[in-house]
Give the backbone structure.
Amino acid sequence: MPKFGRWMVSILAVGMVSGSALAASRGDPVKKFDTDSDGTLDHIEVRKAATALFARLDPDHDGTLDVRELRGRLSAKEIAAADPDHDGTLSVNEYLAVVSQRFDAADPDHDGTLDGRELKTSAGRALLRLLQ
């Protein structure tokens, strides 16, 4: 095979491996948010992901999310329950309190970590809506 041909095959192979790894991390929330690569999500990793999403959802950078900015991740009833100051918005701390509640609900064995199986439950999916 000519040098150019081998070079192209190498580039394509690297791109395919990188692309498949990227696709796997997009589809697998554990891979996407597991910063310590232990195969599970702990509270720290989940809070980090939730904080990053909060920042992306807050385009006006006022430090709060309203119903429109939350884009259906929480119902009006859930927002009201998570809004102790009743201002109609959630601060990052109020948002993270909901994230913590959902983490605990998704962790039935109370080991402090979530694996792929736990994230596939209804409680796990509810948590994931607050992370991605």
Observations:
- The longest helix spans residues 3-27.
- The beta strands are 41-42, 64-65, 90-91, 113-114.
- The two ends are 45 Å apart (CA to CA).
